[in-house]
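User: Fold this; tokens only.

Assistant: Input:
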Amino acid sequence: MRQQALYEAKKLVFQKSSGVMSTLSHNLRGYPFGSVTPYMCDEQGRIYFFISDIAQHTKNLQHDKRMSLTVFDAAERGDQNEHGRVTIVGDGSLVSQAHAEVLINKYVTLFPEAQSYRNAHDFNLWQLDAIRVRYIGGFGKIFWLEQTEWQQPSKQWDESQEQSMIEHMNADHQDAMSLILKQHCNLDDASPVMSGLLPQGFYLQSLNRNYYIAFDEPCDSPMAVRKALVQLTKTAREAS
């Protein structure tokens, strides 16, 4: 049951692209400060934010590293309490320059508008490392997920091959991605773009929005990714 909760919680975080970041206010001591912000998540569950040096959150984090991110499945109708939400509680830190460039490239691929922020020179990448995660999947479906559960790396996942797999899909398989997008998101787009890839799934960008599509099970190699994409394409073609 915990594994199912972990799967659902991570899937929700992967599916969404923004949440409520909360930091401890430096100006109003002792009070939390929250605002909506975009984020990127990696395969280990670390969260990344690309924020300005002059942002209130940055100033707060420079004085107190404690923070959280709340992601929720907004309900257009009905009781919001029946829908899933995740709160990741942990510590924020500035990503070192040695690792920031590759991660910012991934971030800009997911959020192309962030390229202008990158050129502004006062934006930096921050990461949130989970200490504990609260998942609520609806009434009576409530879990605390521990750090060791949340940060489960894919042992054989090679990040250096991510970009080449993405480029290959965008160059040669837009027809397959179009079929998958139609089946999973009911969207007609002849030229979607793969904008991100994780062991757990991938992102297709259509009409300036990212759509996350999960694999049936995590992939630990390029061959496993290929097989998963072939199966998704086959299933989508049969359904069309």
